[in-house]
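Sat 14:20. Reprocessing the chain from the morning session after the first attempt stalled halfway. Input below, unchanged.
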Amino acid sequence: MNNKVADFIAKHQLLSHDDLHVVALSGGADSVALLLMLKQLGYRIEAAHCNFHLRGEESLRDEDFVKSLCQAHDIPLHLIHFDTKEYATLHQVSIEMAARDLRYGYFHQLCQDIGASTICVAHHRDDAVETLLMNLIRGAGIHGLTGIRPKNGQIVRPLLCLSRQEIEDYLHRIHQDYVVDSTNLVDDVVRNKIRLRVLPLLCEINPNVAENIDKTAHYLQQAEKIFNNTLSLQINSLIEREEGSESQKVAIPSLQQLPSPEAFLHEWLTPFGFNSCQTEQIFAHLNGESGREFSTASHTLLIDRNQLILEPLQTPMKAMKIPETGHYRYTDNIRFSFDISNAISISNSVFCATLDIADIQFPLTIRPVQTGDKFCPLGMKGHRLISDFLTDQKLSLLEKRRQLVVTDAHGEILWLVGLRIDHRYRVTNTTSSILRITVAKTL
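Finished this time. Tokens:
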């Protein structure tokens, strides 16, 4: 048994004899077997036990057991107590999620404090099979059907090569007892139902079901590598990123030429908080009406004509008064400067407007475009709705929302920032002084 685990550790390069390793020790069969096997294999280990105070006397029993076990085998032990229910209430998460957050947060901090390189947890093959079945029931994609990985950052799982029965048989042979968590014996949660009811039924159909499902997970892991590599190339080739902008754009015609546009959408958008239901809706509306919008807590995606535009959610912009010339920070990444000069020169930069100041009165105002705004675009006669002008410029809905204008004391629009000044305030041969407005944007 030790040789089997040693071979698995070597195959996946999980542990080093030169490093110190933390073993997550609950007192159950799996963690006890892991502790003793790593000790016998000559690894430098220290144990860590979390008391979550969720099972009354059982929690205290488990703590006493791990103390005695570590003392008997001369293994340093680190103990910590958590008020798990209070944490769950405070952070509005389930008890299970609260325990997980507290446990791994403590383990990572402990590794840092004692100079350990890894956190060894006792997940075995049956745990991986149960996880795969749980994800299958939930409707997971390929990533959810690859089981539990031997290594995830600092967390390593040296017992994934063993079944639960092999672990219990090992402890029986060496006459080592362990504690049993009574909550694992009640089929009140999904994992327990799978363990206590579904897997025994599947074993009646095929006694090797757990081993076969684990093999399938391994095959899917290999397929996932090809899948990830292909999608990564597609994402890098299809996504257009503008310098100085956090927005990402994907041309819908190019997207639709892929073998699986829906898979592309899922991989691209999931890291930004979009769920599978949203990606399915986005895919269904690729050829639909322009202007359809989807949002998460951090990002928004817009279907705009023949492209998808992904951007971080923007803080709503407000009006800002400019009482006199000088430098002003409109937002964290947008700054304006205003100055008056008798040296007449006309800027050709989209980031600078030069205006005849004769008919301009302070205070000025910087604000987003509003419904019904009109101005007289330079070189044109008569007023135009800014909304129509922006449409002619082929700006997206998101760009229209961010569009700024500078107005004078009477509310007249002087500059559609970055696009066009008002014709009435242009510099002419009779201009004696100019107002120069410059905008600078940074990430």
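Residues 209-238 form the longest helix (30 residues).
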